[in-house]
Design a protein that fits this description.
The chain is mainly beta and about 120 residues long. About 0% of the residues lie in helices and about 60% in strands. The chain has no helices and eleven strands. Strands 2, 4, 5, 6, 9, 10 and 11 form a seven-stranded mixed beta sheet that branches. A four-stranded antiparallel beta sheet has the order 1-3-8-7, with no helix packed on it. The chain is elongated. About 30% of the residues are buried. The model has no long low-confidence stretch (mean pLDDT about 95).
Length: about 120
């Protein structure tokens, strides 16, 4: 079994910063891409940022220049540094990872979600 455990969400004022972490554990052979998604009330889940195993990154236009995704392959962990937060960043943030449990078998896993609220 594989688990993704997120941490770091909370309440922050506009203009503030938060850092999300997501650690993968369990039966892991290797990890491909990792990413962060978010879902605001009444809206569809959307990609925020993604990072490949080689470190290439991709961001939603709405967060470019404010958010930074990174990963520590030795710790099977992905991070999302969020700066200059805006009220419209308020959402539940989900970690996603494509994980090989053996050399030939992979699937996507999701974290449980962590709430980020940006409000004064």
């Amino acid at each position: 079994q594989v688990q993704l455990v997120e941490s770091g969400g909370g309440l922050v004022q506009p203009g503030g910063s938060l850092r999300l972490s997501c650690a993968a554990s369990g039966s892991i052979f290797s990890i491909n891409g990792m990413g962060w998604y978010r879902q605001a009330p009444g809206k569809q889940r959307e990609l925020v940022a993604a990072i490949t195993s080689g470190g290439s990154t991709n961001y939603a236009d709405s967060v470019k220049g404010r958010f930074t995704i990174s990963r520590d392959n030795a710790k099977n962990t992905v991070y999302l540094q969020m700066n200059s937060l805006k009220p419209e960043d308020t959402a539940v943030y989900y970690c996603n990872a494509n994980i090989f449990s053996s050399w030939y078998k992979s699937r996507d896993y999701w974290g449980q979600g962590t709430q980020v609220t940006v409000s004064s």
